[in-house]
Design a protein that fits this description.
The complex is a heterodimer of chains A (148) and B (147).
Chain A lengths: L6 H20 L4 H8 L8 H21 L20 H17 L3 H7 L5 H28 L1
Helix pairs in contact in A: 5-6
Chain B lengths: L12 H22 L5 H6 L8 H22 L11 H17 L4 H10 L3 H23 L4
Helix pairs in contact in B: 5-6
Classes of the chains: A mainly alpha (148), B mainly alpha (147).
Chain lengths: 148, 147
Amino acid sequence: MAWVADMAAVLSLFCGLLFGLGLLVSGMANPAKVLNFLDVLGPWDPSLAFVMGGAIVVTAPGFWLLRRRSAPHFAPQFNWPSKTDIDGRLLSGAALFGTGWGLVGFCPGPAIVAISFGNPRTFIFVAAMLAGMAAARALGQRINNVVA
Amino acid sequence: MWGHRPLETQFTPWASLLGGMMIGLSAVAFMAFTGRIAGISGIVSRLLPPDGTVRTGLPFVIGLLAAAPLYFFATGGFPAQAVTGNTMLLVVAGLLVGFGATYGNGCTCGHGVCGISRLSTRSIIATITFMAAAAATVLVMRHGLGG
């Protein structure tokens, strides 16, 4: 396992750990909190807005500073997203994602973190989510092949 | 299903703000170290065949999985959690979340946190779209059309 000795891999693990702890501390691993944020007519819980606010308050200036650098510490270059087009693919993907998110209250990060709680209901969700991801990748590749 | 009697949850402004800042710090550190966006749907979907960007993606996911056990040892328990017991709903929601996030190139963290932080119009529009779709879904599920 070459990646064990790899600094980028070790630091990635710590980043994942910090990300996961952030989701747990913020309460977002609980789908009920997410659904109550989305439900303005029900027992509204605005916590999710504070999670996003707290994240953006740190990420926005952090990214702004990194933008002025030429390269990351342990990789040859920054992979800043380059797409700017607002197309059907973006909108339909976001709409489908939002619908699924609203049905159960899990998005990918919290669902992966919550696997370790050992709740079989979470396993079912994550298994279906992985299948959905694989299907989207297969479809995306077909579309790209047709275009190319 | 607890569709008609939603569970009350406590508003936790400080814990949520702190947790959010931890997520932000992780996103900045991940970009500073690896040059990549800490978008979970992107990281996870790239672990699946055919390409498999495992060098930084796999350890990141291992870190995510290790978070709850570490939280457990530090506090003596997992955070409260309520997940629907409706298997059909879990499967449909999982498929939609996985497909939509990958097809639309991002989820709550990729478009929502990282994209908005870059002031990307594309990500802001994606975030408004999935928030609106999610709120509409909850409206239908909880308050019902004719229910």
